[in-house]
Amino acid sequence: MSQKSLEDRLQGGVFLLSLSLFGLFWAVLAALKADPTVLPGPVDVAQVFWSEAAAGRLPRELFATLLRVVVSFGLAMAAGCLLGFLLGRHRILNRWADPWVTIFMNLPALVLIVLCYLWIGLNELAAIVAVTLNKTAMVMVTIRQGVRSFDPALDDLALVARLSRGERLRHLVLPQLAPWLAVAARNGIAIIWKIVLVVEFLGRSNGVGFRIHLYFQQFQTAHVLVYSLSFVAVMLVAEHGIIQRWEARAASWKR
Hints:
The chain has 10 helices and no strands.
């Protein structure tokens, strides 16, 4: 067995053990509280999970939220990467745009969501725009910093070798920018789905956030936990199955 395979198995074992300890901690707290209306145990939540899944509500709401996350994430990454690259390359443009970046970085997500609903309406476009704007500034700042860290010697090498723009992008820009792209993606996965839930909580008629709002009004704690933990599970799979592997590959060119 190779060392890498052994490390992957060890990491997977630690991950599963850590989740098991979390479940045990949750079960102990629920037993101490002894009030399932306040803190239902894992078994109670599992029963509600199967009920919601069998009725088709859970998969349907998960898909609606995941679709918003994917669309908003893709738009934010595309816009943030383009703007961040331009700001990192052109100092004058960065000097003029820096106050704008600061404003959008510090504008609370809740305020931007409410404004988008007021300006555009309680529709899907407003939800996507609100989430995208919230995330774009963060991607922009990360990519801008990544561009500023480029090795100037590689630019000189590109001039000497007379590389085309496509060759520069493929062989010089993307390898240097890959770790920063991975960081932007990881932060995006960690944050953007939370913003989507707030958007759904405030003004959508489907999705995980909508269900959490509905069951919150009905004081059904187990249902709130089912929808919350279900989407957390989806994000854990994305983090460990996609983002971390991409991050490892992005940094491999340095070794």
